[in-house]
Amino acid sequence: MRYLFVAAAKDIRRRLADPAAFAIWIGLPLLLGGLLSFINDDDAAPPRATVLVVDEDDTFSSGLLLTALERAPTMELKTVSIDEGRRRIDDGDATALLVVPKGFEQAVFDASSASSASAASAAELTLVTNPAQQILPGIVEETLEIVVEGVFYAQQIFGSALRRIADQRSGPPSDVEVAAMAVEINREAASLQNVLFPPAIALTVVRAAPEQAGPSLSFGQLFFPGMLFMSLLFIAGGMAGDIWEEQQMGTLKRALSTAQSARRLLAGKLVAGIVMMTVIGSVALAAGTVLFDLAWWRVPAALAWSVFTGSALLALFTPLQMLASSQRAADMLSSTILFPLMMLGGSFFPFETMPAWMAAVGQWTPNGLGVARLKDLLYGDVALAPLAIAALGIGVPAAAAFLFSARRLRRRFAVL
Question: What SS3 state is found at 75?
C-alpha cells in the first residue's frame, strides 16, 4: 500500500508542478458556469420596444388606440412632443416614433361612410422606425397592422352605429338614442350568428401527461451536469496520457523494472486522478450552489458520484494509450473518442434538447450514464435501482479496462 500512495503522491506533485494545466482543469467549470449564469438570469426582463407617441388628436379614440398598444408586453409607450420625438428617434434613443394626427377620431367614425374617403386619407398614422434595430421595429409595425385590421372590420360590421356615435359627439346622447344604437349593434351581432356561434374555427388543446414528473429546471441547471462531466472527461483524457510523458522522461521504465507490479503503478495513477477530480468536482459543485441554486445537502452524494464516474472514465481512457504506437497517435485516438462522447453524453447539448434516438444512445455511454444519474442526485428523487445499474454499467467496463491496461503496460513499455 505504501508504494501505491507514494506513486499517487508523485503524480499529484507532477500535476501541481504544471500550474497551467491545473488552472485550465479547475477554471473550466468556473468559466462555463459563469457564462451559463448570464444566460440563466430568469429575472431578466424581455426586450421591449420604446415607442415615442405624439398624440395630436387627444381624443377618446386615440386614447383607446394607445391603451391597446401599451397592453402589448413588448412595448413601452412614452408621450412626447413632435420636436422631442424626432430628435430622439434621430439619435437612436427609441425603437419607433408614432404620430397620431389631428382628426384621427373623425376619420375613424367617418371612414365607414363611402363619401368620407378623403377625410380618412387625411388622418394617416405616421410611424418612423429606428434602422439600427432589427426585430423590435417589426413587432411595432405588426401590432399597428393588427389594430388597423380591427378598425376596418369594425367599420364594415358596425358602420351605421359608428355614424350615429359620430353625430352625437357634440353632446351626450339621449336614452332613446342609446337604446336605438344598442338595438342596432345587437342586430348586427345577430346577423353574424352563423359565423360566430358556433365559431368557424375551433381550437382543441390536448395536453399530454408528462412521462415523468420532475422539477422545472432553468437553462443553467439543465447544462450544469454535462458541463461538469466535460471537465472530468478532459481530466481523464489528460491524465491517461501521463504514461507517455513518463515514458519519454524514462521514469516509467525505471518504475517497471522494480519488483512492484504494474497494477500498483496504475492504481497509484488512478488514486492521483481521484484526488484531482475531487478537487475539481468540489470547486464545480460549490460554484453550482452559488450560480444555479443547487441544494447544499445534495452536494456530497453528487461529488461522490462524479468522482466515481470520473475515475472510471480515466480507467477507460488508459487502454487507448496502450494501443497507440506513439504519443501523438494516442492523443489523436483519445480526441477521436473524447469529442463524440461529449456530444452524445450530454456535455454539448442536454438530453432534453436532443433528438429521441440520439438521447437514447447517449444515455448509455459511460459519461451519459453519469450525467443522467447526476441530474437525479442534484434535482430529483434518487432511486437506488437506476443508480446501481449505472454504477455497474460504468464500473464493470472500467475494472476490465484497468486489468487490461495493467497487463499491457509492462509488455508495451518495459523495453530492456
Answer: strand
Average pLDDT score, the chain = 79
Q: Which contacts qualify for 188-194: CB closer than 8 Å, 24 or more apart?
A: 188/157, 188/158, 188/160, 188/161, 192/157
- Secondary-structure class of domain 49-196 per CATH: alpha beta
Could you tell me whether strands 96-100 and 126-129 are parallel, antiparallel, or unpaired per DSSP bridges? antiparallel
Three-state DSSP at 130 gives coil
Whether the CB-CB separation of 69 and 146 falls below 8 Å is answered with: no
- In tens, the pLDDT along 279-301 reads 888 988 988 888 888 888 999 99
- In this structure, the number of other CB atoms found within 10 A of the CB of residue 151 comes to 16
**How much is the pTM?**
0.59
Tell me the helices (H) and strands (E) count for the chain, helix number first.
Answer: 18, 4
Instruction: Kindly report the backbone phi and psi dihedral angles of residue 125, in degrees, each rounded to the nearest multiple of 5, phi listed first.
Output: -70, 135
Contact 228, 306 (CB under 8 A): yes
Residue 253 phi, psi dihedral angles, 5° rounding: -65, -40
Cα-based distances in Å from 35 to 38, 282, 288, 305:
6, 19, 12, 25
d(CA 303, CA 282): 7
Q: Where are the domains of the chain?
A: 2-40+218-413, 49-196
The DSSP bridge pattern shows strands 49-55 and 75-79 to be: parallel
Which range has highest mean pLDDT (101-105, 191-195, 197-201, 303-307)? 303-307
Contact 256, 322 (CB under 8 A): no
Which tens digit of pLDDT belongs to each residue from 206-232? Answer: 765 544 445 677 777 888 898 889 888
Q: Which one-letter amino acid corresponds to residue 97?
A: L
* Residue found by looking up cell 513518463 in the block: 246
- Between CA 144 and CA 147 the distance in angstroms is 5
Which one is predicted more confidently, 147 or 315? 315
213 vs 392: CA distance, rounded Å: 26
